Amino acid sequence: MKKKLFSASMLFAAFSLLSVKWADAQNKAPYSAKDKTVKVYLTAKNTDNRITQTETLHFVDKPQPGETEVSVFVDPSKTFQTMLGIGAALTDASAETFYKLPKDKQKEFMTAYFDKEKGIGYTLARTHIQSCDFSSASYGYVKDGDVSLKTFDVSHDEKYRIPFIKEAMAAAGGKLTMFVTPWSPPAWMKTNNDVLHGGKLLPKYDQAWANFYVKFIKTYEKLGMPIWGLSVQNEPMATQSWESCLYTAEDERDFIKNYLGPALVKSGLGNKKLFVWDHNRDLIYQRASTILEDPQAAKYIWGIGFHWYETWTGAGMNFESTRRVAEAFPGKHLLFTEGCVEKFDFNRLNDWALGERYGLSMINDFNAGTVGWTDWNILLDENGGPNHVGNYCFAPVHADTRNGSLIYTNSYYYMGHFSKFIHPGAKRIISNASRDKLLTTAYINPDGKLAVVVMNKSDDNVDYYLWIKGKAAKTTSPAHSIATLVVE
């Protein structure tokens, strides 16, 4: 009797296992574009199209494209990194400018950036610990010499920045993935006794400075702003006229493994995502390898942050550097943490090159393995500020505080072609153009819809096929345009 019962149990278990495997096989059936449509959303130079739905495409059978037929090949069966989010920095400058706008324009601004339907649906944000160049003046949170941080006080931020962050969170549906970054420790903690002009952290204040991050995160969270992650230092290789502090790769490694990492864990913040570098692509491999090859430092580190300003040397954007890091350290994450077009000029606000720089960077960064992309200031005024050292820059949206208006550059729309259609949790998939006039990246969203971004920086209109597993839909990429093709 026992033998028969055992056999029945085994048969039932085997049947259950086969059922599960059959269900898995059904769920993993090859992707087919049959009966699917493609909605095309377009932004193009010399037109009124700004993330405008211009057409709906239908697939036809096309097993083999010809050599002279331009194609964008998409393969949803090959998946890569998961999208964390896309967004921008919520700085003092942005907050101060925002509160100079009339109430109706404030509402318009928040809707434009954070509303998932009416706007471009930002989900990621960065803010600074103490002042940065995009503050109206330098300031700190503790009194001189207060190693114990008993005088720690963020009341400065409560006038503009904290209310601004909370409005952004509300506009985003109650949640923003936010990370924080210091530009400089207090002057008295540094070798040059100055928050500006570089200098280094004095070794005797290593622990106090590590505790400072903990204090800031816990204070902001107590005030209702959850913090997802943090970087060690903004641009640790640059001596700037504004707030800055220098770390070699070895300095940053040792500070993490001996002070900052343990301080986060001891305080219950070990779940915060800590990332290193937060500077330009050109030196990213040297920084990443020096730190991540030390197991005692690497165990605290989620990933590597980077900027796009290697172009200050006269070079182009160095996408190969980030690809090498992704290849060498696949267990860590790449995060774009800052980029903007520098040297503000009000007369250039309609320059199409502004948005094309964003598109070029975002497509290449995502294809290199980047999981999230963060613009610099989300809003600036008609002067490219405020900025207390005159380092005026472009933002995707500017407020003209002289008349209370908002000016949307094409950078806003170029970023929107990613943030509006590629959602947190999406997986990057293969998207490959057969001609170099077209740049492309693609994702499959959690709801199963594909978002294929196609950008054309050339002066020519390019006819092409969107090709998926033997099915193709024909369309045109206008000169100097970006489109998102949503397959559903």
Topology:
Elements: H1 2-27, E1 37-44, E2 52-58, E3 60-61, E4 71-82, E5 85-89, H2 92-98, H3 103-114, E6 124-129, H4 161-171, E7 177-182, H5 206-222, E8 229-231, H6 249-266, E9 273-280, H7 284-292, H8 295-298, E10 303-307, H9 319-328, E11 333-338, H10 353-367, E12 370-377, E13 380-381, E14 397-400, E15 405-408, H11 410-419, E16 427-433, E17 438-444, E18 450-456, E19 462-468, E20 471-477, E21 481-487
Helix pairs in contact: 2-4, 3-4, 5-6, 6-7, 7-9, 10-11
For the sheet with most strands, the description reads: 10 strands, mixed
Instruction: Indicate the overall shape.
Output: globular
Poorly predicted sequence stretches spanning 5 or more consecutive residues = 1-6, 18-26
Tell me the helix content: 25-40%
What is the terminal separation in angstroms?
Answer: 55 Å
Mean pLDDT: 95
How much of the sequence lies in strands comes to 25-35%
Walk across the major sheet and give the strand order: 2-1-21-18-17-16-4-19-20-3
Radius of gyration: 25 Å
How many helical stretches? 11
Report the strand count. Answer: 21
The SS-based structural class is: alpha/beta
Give structural notes.
It is a single chain. With 488 residues, this protein is of the alpha/beta class. 28% of the residues lie in helices and 26% in strands. The chain contains 11 helices and 21 strands. It has a 10-stranded mixed β-sheet. An 8-stranded parallel β-barrel has the order 5-6-7-8-9-10-11-12, surrounded by 6 helices. It has a 3-stranded mixed β-sheet with strand order 13-14-15. Strand 11 (333-338), helix 10 and strand 12 form a beta-alpha-beta unit. It is globular, with a radius of gyration of 25 Å. Mean pLDDT is 95; it is low at 1-6 and 18-26.
